[in-house]
Specification:
Layout lengths: L6 H9 L7 E3 L2 E3 L6 E5 L6 E6 L3 H17 L7 H17 L1 H12 L3 H22 L6 E3 L5 E9 L2 E5 L5 H14 L3 E5 L6 H13 L6 E3 L4 H10 L5 E5 L2 H13 L4 E5 L5 E4 L6 H13 L11 E5 L3 H13 L19 H16 L3 E4 L16 E4 L6 H4 L6 E7 L2 H9 L6 E5 L3 H10 L4 E4 L32 E9 L3
Parallel strand pairs: 7-8, 7-10, 8-9, 10-11, 12-13, 12-17, 13-16, 15-16, 17-18
Antiparallel strand pairs: 1-2, 3-4, 5-6, 6-19, 14-15
Length: 500
């Protein structure tokens, strides 16, 4: 399929799109046991994309039974690593073949620009699946140091049935970050997408079967948190639970793991990431553009969004002017416009939440220098202008709480020590950035930042070879890299007496 490059061609593809809306259990699309559905509304224009199966506890039970059966059969869990590798590489290739369709589903369902969905989300999903497939047969066991009468083996075994709950902002990619290493290690997966954006992952399940993943190994159960997510987290036959989403939900899921079977539980949660610009930064223009894209990309609906901009006071006014100038060019447009820098917010609820935070920022005395209003892009759609607050106090609500929208808080600092104190004075610790031409300062500050990812002289660096996750209440465990395999395996020590 050739990638469309115009709005008309994307809309033509959308008109012919067959949208899957059922749950996917044991290799087949099925209705929820109750027959319930929920309306899937596009935030682009408020129209319905279809009625999606609303899974609940009975459907979770069906999916877990299918996963356990597939795991115990050994068809996937005991397959040779070279076979699982071959299948995952084929899976990556099929995702590429269906890339336009998957990107369009992401855009229609979640509101992001389709060009971003194709060039970033789908492309990164392909890289994730392919890299993980290539890596899985490079994971070795160990031989413990022993005397001549013993042999000590350290081996990894698949965990079993994995429950995965993924967010609405990067539905396909966050699913891949969980799915790829779980499958690579031989597990079976029950995945619950967000009810706000389930369509791409529902379609992905069918592609997995085409790639050669056996029925029951990958199941998708759309539904709400209380109806589907909580029963999955509490299920006594789920061995591992992985999640990306808010800190509040992550805490609840950890409690569910403790209340049930003490399943392994790994949470990737929220962030309030600081982006620190020192006066000696080499290129203030480049830093300003990065500061704008770091908060306005994907409408600010990014867990690592550069939502707190800490700028050395001597350059603050000049730098804020540059950021505002860059932000003006990122006004939202129709998501099917190939050059749209921003699209729609995911839904009306999130739109109202972000606008409420903007009102609170004004009420608490921050200086609104850009945006701050709902944008009239498409009638019935959910759009917000790129918004910048200057003169924000470190104690202001918009500086402390995760907004998950295109709202930037600018805070001045006078010294390196003050910048570090404010950067680290947060319950979160997902990501941080700094801009300086002083190599000693770069290393010194990077070491002291309490965050799982630190980027120097750019924002959002790294690739599949680097682990991703947070400190503090941004979660535990790591996605991506070889470290991700730790979440999906049990480590076993086997000792053999060679003399008896």
């Amino acid at each position: 399929m050739t990638t469309p490059h115009t709005r008309d061609s994307w809309e033509s593809l959308a008109n012919g799109l067959k949208i899957r809306t059922q749950a996917f259990i044991d290799g087949n699309y099925v209705n929820a046991a109750s027959g319930k559905t929920f309306d899937c509304i596009s935030p682009i224009d408020g129209r319905s994309l279809g009625r999606v199966s609303e899974c609940e506890a009975e459907d979770i039970e069906r999916a877990v039974i299918a996963s356990r059966r597939s795991f115990d059969s050994g068809a996937w869990s005991e397959a040779a690593p070279r076979h699982r590798k071959k299948v995952l590489l084929k899976f990556a290739g099929l995702i590429e073949q269906h890339g336009d369709e998957l990107a369009l589903l992401e855009s229609l369902d979640m509101g992001k620009p389709v060009s971003d969905a194709r060039a970033v989300d789908v492309a990164a999903t392909i890289r994730c699946m392919a890299w993980t497939g290539e890596a899985l047969d490079k994971v070795y066991g160990e031989v413990a140091p022993t005397g001549p009468g013993e042999l000590g083996l350290v081996t990894r075994e698949p965990l079993g049935v994995i429950g995965a709950i993924v967010p609405w902002n990067f539905p396909l990619l966050m699913a891949a970050w969980k799915l790829a290493p779980a499958l690579a290690m031989g597990n079976s997966v029950v995945l619950k997408p967000s009810e706000k954006s389930p369509l791409s992952v529902i379609r992905l399940a069918e592609i997995a079967i085409e790639a050669g993943i056996p029925a029951g190994v990958f199941n998708v159960v759309p539904g709400y948190g209380k109806g589907a997510g909580e029963p999955l987290a509490l299920h006594m036959d789920v061995d591992g639970l992985v999640f990306t989403g808010s800190t509040a939900v992550g805490k609840h899921l950890l409690q569910c793991a403790g209340r049930s079977n003490l399943k392994r539980a790994y949470m990737e949660c929220g962030g309030k990431s600081p982006n620190i610009v020192f006066a000696d930064a080499r290129d203030l223009g480049k830093a300003a553009e990065a500061a704008a894209s770091g908060i306005f990309y994907n409408q600010g609906e990014v867990c690592t969004a550069a939502s707190r901009l800490l700028v050395e006071r001597s350059i603050k006014d000049e730098f804020v002017a540059r950021v505002v100038e860059a932000g003006r060019d990122m006004h939202p447009r129709h998501p099917l416009e190939p050059s749209a820098p921003m699209g729609a917010m995911v839904d009306e609820t999130q739109t109202t939440r972000v606008l409420d935070y903007i009102e609170k920022g004004v009420a608490e005395g921050a200086n609104l220098v850009l945006g701050g209003k709902r944008a009239n892009v498409v009638q019935g759609g959910c759009y917000i202008e790129p918004t910048v607050f200057d003169d924000v106090a470190h104690e202001h609500t918009i500086s402390r709480e995760e907004i998950f929208g295109p709202v930037l808080s600018v805070i001045a600092f006078d010294s390196e020590e003050q910048a570090l104190r404010m950067a680290n004075d947060t319950e979160y610790g997902l990501a941080a950035g700094l801009w300086t031409s002083d190599i000693s300062r770069a290393h010194r500050v990077a070491r002291k930042l309490r965050a799982g990812s630190v980027w120097v002289n750019y924002w959002d660096g790294g690739d599949m070879t680097a682990p991703f996750g947070g400190y503090k209440q941004s979660g535990n465990g790591r996605d991506k890299s070889l470290h991700a395999f730790d979440k999906y395996t049990e480590m076993k020590a086997t000792w053999i007496n060679l003399e008896g």
